[in-house]
């Protein structure tokens, strides 16, 4: 299991449809990818979960990945959320 805390920044400015694009990034990996914030934990591969979670600028999010490609998944989700 890998875990990292990030502060969301410029997601709405850096992406045309950030919710759908985040799910697409997550679905490229076999690992389980969870996002946690304020006692909420959602599956990053669930579009309904991401819509309810609504990652927005300034939000502190823990990315938790587990599986064969967990490090690559963690890096990809981090880059998406901080718009690198």
UniProtKB/TrEMBL annotation:
Q: EC number(s)?
A: 2.7.11.-
Name the Pfam families on file.
PTS-HPr (PF00381)
Q: Which GO terms describe its molecular function?
A: transferase activity
Q: Which residues cross the membrane?
A: none
Ranges of residues in domain HPr: 1-84
Cite the entry's keywords alphabetically.
Answer: Transferase
Q: Which species does this protein come from?
A: Roseburia faecis
Q: Which PROSITE patterns match?
A: PTS_HPR_DOM
Q: Does the keyword Transferase apply?
A: yes
Give yes or no: UniProt keyword Iron.
Answer: no
Q: What is this protein called?
A: HPr family phosphocarrier protein
């Amino acid at each position: 299991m890998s875990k990292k805390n990030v502060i969301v920044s410029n997601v709405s400015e850096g992406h045309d449809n950030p919710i759908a694009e985040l799910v697409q990034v997550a679905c490229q990996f076999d690992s389980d990818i969870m996002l946690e914030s304020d006692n909420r934990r959602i599956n990053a591969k669930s579009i309904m979960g991401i819509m309810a979670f609504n990652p927005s600028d300034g939000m502190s999010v823990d990315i938790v990945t587990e599986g064969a490609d967990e490090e690559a998944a963690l890096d990809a989700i981090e880059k998406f959320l901080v718009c690198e």
